[in-house]
Amino acid sequence: MTTSERLRELGISLPQVAAPVAAYVPAIRTGNQVWTSGQIPFVNGELAATGKVGAEVSAEDAYNYARIAALNALAAVDALVGIDKVTRVLKIVGFVASAEDFGGQPAVINGASELMGEIFGDAGAHARSAVGVAELPLNSPVEVEIIVEIAP
Questions:
Q1: What is the DSSP string of 12-34?
Q2: Bridge partners (DSSP) listed for residue 132
Q3: Using alpha carbons only, what angle is made at residue 123 by residues 122 and 128, rounded to the nearest 5 degrees?
Q4: Could you count the other beta carbons within 10 Å of the beta carbon of residue 71?
Q5: Which end of the chain is more exposed for a tag (fewer CB within 10 A), N or C?
Q6: What is the pLDDT of residue 72?
Q7: Nearest-angstrom CA–CA distance, 133 and 27
Protein backbone atom coordinates (compact mmCIF):
# COMPACT_ATOMS: atom_id res chain seq x y z
CA MET A 1 0.00 0.00 0.00
CA THR A 2 1.37 3.43 -0.89
CA THR A 3 1.47 6.25 1.60
CA SER A 4 -1.16 8.10 -0.44
CA GLU A 5 -3.45 5.07 -0.19
CA ARG A 6 -2.80 4.81 3.54
CA LEU A 7 -3.67 8.48 4.02
CA ARG A 8 -6.96 7.95 2.15
CA GLU A 9 -7.68 4.87 4.27
CA LEU A 10 -7.14 6.96 7.43
CA GLY A 11 -9.27 9.81 6.08
CA ILE A 12 -6.31 12.20 6.24
CA SER A 13 -5.75 14.89 3.61
CA LEU A 14 -2.46 16.72 3.47
CA PRO A 15 -2.97 20.48 3.63
CA GLN A 16 -1.55 23.06 1.27
CA VAL A 17 2.05 23.91 2.13
CA ALA A 18 2.12 26.78 4.61
CA ALA A 19 3.73 29.88 3.17
CA PRO A 20 7.03 30.69 4.89
CA VAL A 21 6.78 33.54 7.41
CA ALA A 22 10.47 34.50 6.98
CA ALA A 23 13.49 33.83 4.72
CA TYR A 24 13.50 30.04 4.30
CA VAL A 25 12.02 27.23 2.21
CA PRO A 26 9.50 24.73 3.62
CA ALA A 27 11.70 21.71 2.82
CA ILE A 28 15.00 20.85 1.21
CA ARG A 29 16.35 17.63 -0.21
CA THR A 30 19.90 16.42 0.21
CA GLY A 31 20.79 12.98 -1.12
CA ASN A 32 18.11 10.54 0.02
CA GLN A 33 16.79 12.77 2.81
CA VAL A 34 14.29 15.60 3.05
CA TRP A 35 14.56 18.04 5.95
CA THR A 36 11.63 20.32 6.68
CA SER A 37 11.70 23.72 8.24
CA GLY A 38 9.81 24.06 11.49
CA GLN A 39 6.07 23.94 10.86
CA ILE A 40 3.46 25.46 13.13
CA PRO A 41 -0.22 24.49 13.30
CA PHE A 42 -1.61 26.51 10.41
CA VAL A 43 -5.08 25.45 9.28
CA ASN A 44 -6.33 27.10 6.09
CA GLY A 45 -3.72 29.81 6.45
CA GLU A 46 -4.63 30.64 10.04
CA LEU A 47 -2.77 29.69 13.21
CA ALA A 48 -4.98 27.19 15.08
CA ALA A 49 -4.09 28.62 18.51
CA THR A 50 -1.69 30.90 20.31
CA GLY A 51 -0.23 30.89 23.78
CA LYS A 52 1.81 28.81 26.16
CA VAL A 53 1.13 25.16 26.82
CA GLY A 54 0.25 24.70 30.47
CA ALA A 55 -1.31 28.20 30.63
CA GLU A 56 -3.52 29.39 27.75
CA VAL A 57 -3.29 26.07 25.87
CA SER A 58 -3.96 22.66 27.42
CA ALA A 59 -1.54 19.80 26.89
CA GLU A 60 -4.35 17.83 25.22
CA ASP A 61 -5.02 20.61 22.71
CA ALA A 62 -1.28 21.06 22.13
CA TYR A 63 -1.04 17.33 21.29
CA ASN A 64 -3.55 17.95 18.48
CA TYR A 65 -1.66 21.07 17.35
CA ALA A 66 1.56 19.02 17.16
CA ARG A 67 -0.33 16.59 14.94
CA ILE A 68 -1.43 19.46 12.67
CA ALA A 69 2.12 20.83 12.53
CA ALA A 70 3.39 17.36 11.57
CA LEU A 71 0.81 17.18 8.77
CA ASN A 72 2.09 20.54 7.55
CA ALA A 73 5.61 19.11 7.55
CA LEU A 74 4.44 16.10 5.54
CA ALA A 75 2.76 18.50 3.10
CA ALA A 76 6.12 20.22 2.60
CA VAL A 77 7.73 16.84 1.88
CA ASP A 78 4.92 15.95 -0.52
CA ALA A 79 5.26 19.24 -2.42
CA LEU A 80 9.00 18.74 -2.81
CA VAL A 81 9.33 15.05 -3.72
CA GLY A 82 5.94 13.35 -3.37
CA ILE A 83 4.73 11.63 -0.21
CA ASP A 84 4.95 8.18 -1.79
CA LYS A 85 8.75 8.50 -2.00
CA VAL A 86 9.08 8.49 1.82
CA THR A 87 10.59 5.21 2.97
CA ARG A 88 11.24 6.09 6.64
CA VAL A 89 10.77 8.84 9.18
CA LEU A 90 14.21 9.45 10.64
CA LYS A 91 13.70 12.22 13.20
CA ILE A 92 11.17 14.60 14.65
CA VAL A 93 12.16 17.73 16.52
CA GLY A 94 9.29 19.28 18.45
CA PHE A 95 9.27 22.60 20.25
CA VAL A 96 6.65 23.44 22.86
CA ALA A 97 6.08 27.02 24.03
CA SER A 98 5.89 26.15 27.71
CA ALA A 99 4.44 27.90 30.71
CA GLU A 100 6.69 28.03 33.75
CA ASP A 101 6.88 24.61 35.42
CA PHE A 102 5.27 22.80 32.45
CA GLY A 103 7.17 19.55 31.88
CA GLY A 104 4.86 17.64 29.56
CA GLN A 105 6.70 18.34 26.30
CA PRO A 106 7.14 14.63 25.41
CA ALA A 107 3.40 13.96 25.70
CA VAL A 108 2.62 17.00 23.53
CA ILE A 109 5.03 15.97 20.77
CA ASN A 110 3.54 12.47 20.86
CA GLY A 111 0.85 14.06 18.66
CA ALA A 112 3.41 14.23 15.86
CA SER A 113 5.12 10.93 16.68
CA GLU A 114 1.95 8.87 16.91
CA LEU A 115 0.71 10.32 13.61
CA MET A 116 3.87 9.06 11.89
CA GLY A 117 3.23 5.59 13.28
CA GLU A 118 -0.38 5.65 12.03
CA ILE A 119 0.70 6.66 8.55
CA PHE A 120 4.00 4.81 8.06
CA GLY A 121 3.72 1.86 10.47
CA ASP A 122 7.14 0.54 11.50
CA ALA A 123 8.82 2.97 9.07
CA GLY A 124 7.35 5.77 11.18
CA ALA A 125 9.48 4.87 14.23
CA HIS A 126 11.99 7.68 14.62
CA ALA A 127 14.52 9.45 16.79
CA ARG A 128 13.10 12.53 18.51
CA SER A 129 13.67 15.62 20.58
CA ALA A 130 10.88 17.36 22.50
CA VAL A 131 12.04 20.74 23.76
CA GLY A 132 10.35 23.34 25.94
CA VAL A 133 10.95 26.93 24.85
CA ALA A 134 9.92 30.37 26.05
CA GLU A 135 8.48 31.62 22.74
CA LEU A 136 7.74 30.37 19.24
CA PRO A 137 7.04 32.32 16.03
CA LEU A 138 3.66 34.09 15.95
CA ASN A 139 3.07 32.95 19.56
CA SER A 140 2.43 29.40 18.32
CA PRO A 141 2.10 26.77 21.06
CA VAL A 142 4.09 24.16 19.08
CA GLU A 143 6.50 23.79 16.17
CA VAL A 144 7.52 20.52 14.49
CA GLU A 145 10.23 19.68 11.98
CA ILE A 146 10.91 16.29 10.44
CA ILE A 147 13.66 14.49 8.58
CA VAL A 148 12.62 11.65 6.27
CA GLU A 149 14.43 9.18 4.08
CA ILE A 150 13.22 8.90 0.50
CA ALA A 151 13.56 6.41 -2.29
CA PRO A 152 15.89 7.38 -5.15
A1: --PPPPPPPSSSS-SEEEETTEE
A2: 96
A3: 100
A4: 23
A5: C
A6: 98
A7: 23
At the topology level, CATH places domain 3-14+27-150 in 60s Ribosomal Protein L30; Chain: A; (3.30.1330)
Sheet holding 27-30, edge to edge: 27-30, 33-36, 142-150, 86-97, 127-133
Please report the sign of the dihedral spanned by the C-alpha atoms of residue 125, residue 131, residue 132, residue 134. Answer: negative
122 C-beta neighbours (distance < 10 Å), count = 7
Whether the pLDDT of residue 37 is over 90: the answer is yes
Residue 36's DSSP bridge partners are 27
In this prediction, residue 9 carries a pLDDT of: 97
65-111 tens-digit pLDDT: 999 999 999 999 999 999 999 999 999 999 999 999 999 999 999 99
What are the φ/ψ torsions at residue 23 (nearest 5 degrees)?
-90, 85
Q: What is the pTM of this model?
A: 0.96
